[in-house]
Amino acid sequence: MFGSKSLAPQPTASPGGELELLLHDVNSASVSTRGAWIFLIALEAYFFIALSGISHRDLLLNTPVAQPILQVAIPLRSFILFGPLVLLVMHAGVLQQHIILARKLKALDAGLNKQEAIPLTHPARLRVHSYYFSQIEAGPETSRVVRAAFHAMDWIFLRLLPLGLLLAFQITYLPAHDAQITWWHRLYVLADLLIVVGTSRFLASLEKIYPGNETLTGDTVLRRFTASLAVLLVILFSLAVATIPGERVDRLLAAIEPTAAPVPFQGLGNVSRNLPPGARDRRAFWPTAVLFDGEVDDWTRRPTSFFARNLVVMDEDLVPDNHGYGNETSVSLRGRDLNYATFDRSDLHRADLTDTLLKGASLIETNLEGAKLVRVALQGADLSLARLAGVEAHAVLLDGARLCAGETPLDLSTSAGIERIKCGAH
Predict the structure, then answer these.
(1) What are the tens digits of pLDDT across the range 98-144?
(2) Which of 88, 130, 180, 217 has the most C-beta neighbours closer than 10 Å?
(3) Domain match, 316 and 218 both
(4) Inside any domain, residue 272
(5) How many domains does the chain have?
């Protein structure tokens, strides 16, 4: 019949002219963009493996991070500070390449669309590079399953994983209580969010310049709402949930009664520890308490929460071999913020704890023989059965702490609310 699509002239495999040149340019750009995408995935995998290998012991002792390819070890603090910056720059570069590729793909798709009687049927679309981004933007018609897989790959590898890894850096180093680095991590997360949102908005604007078929950059109300909600949740988690105990935002949120919860948070079936007087009645923002401040399990030597924001180093020999004998310092923890850490039954003999914060810390049966305790804040700490022989103690604050009854080398005259308990045979 007259006007039937079946009678319309069928396009040839070559679109001809400028479109043919554009097709070659698109395929060349797709090759380099896919290479950058693969490198980004490899970098993400490396960081994930490296972060999963960092323990609380490593955070306490600042153990360098080994690099498997370079065969060198990077200082832990440098890795934690500059690793996210490398990921951020790489992520921005890869997204920039996708922006350039998307503009070319949109132009190619619009040009081929004008030569098609039926959308997405031009033979030249079969010659588009196999990279998923190119296929979804200018490739031939595919099934809903394949299209959904392309969408998932785009969201997971180009948006969610980089952001998730930046949050993983923040979560991993949070127990070290280094406010400076934690704020750098928050700035990295915010910067990456701005980059992702800016890229998404730019890609969506291409729909107006090159209107055509539905692609990855389609800007619907549902997608905008979902993306906005995800951005708000990431910001809330980084700024308000993953906090250091005692920092300003933590104190402000803990003071809001309806959204505060007691910590350590008692999960279902957990056995509550009998905390010293000075360590009781602590509160935190409810999501923080649930996700980061769970009770420490003596069997697993881990907190019962999903994550941890305080160090848990139990039953560990923290003194290097052939160190800590005579007058030699075994390990230096000078000036560290170790508030609410758990060091039960660990060996810290002859450790230098000068100017160290140990408020609410658990030091049950910890070996502190010969340690240097000068201007140490031990308010609310549990020193039950701690080995304190030969300690050098000056200006130690012990308000609300717990110690065994009997003689002690610590001066208790300047502290109030100390709980002395019967510990039995040592």
Answers:
(1) 999 999 999 898 888 888 788 888 888 889 999 999 998 888 888 88
(2) 217
(3) no
(4) yes
(5) 3
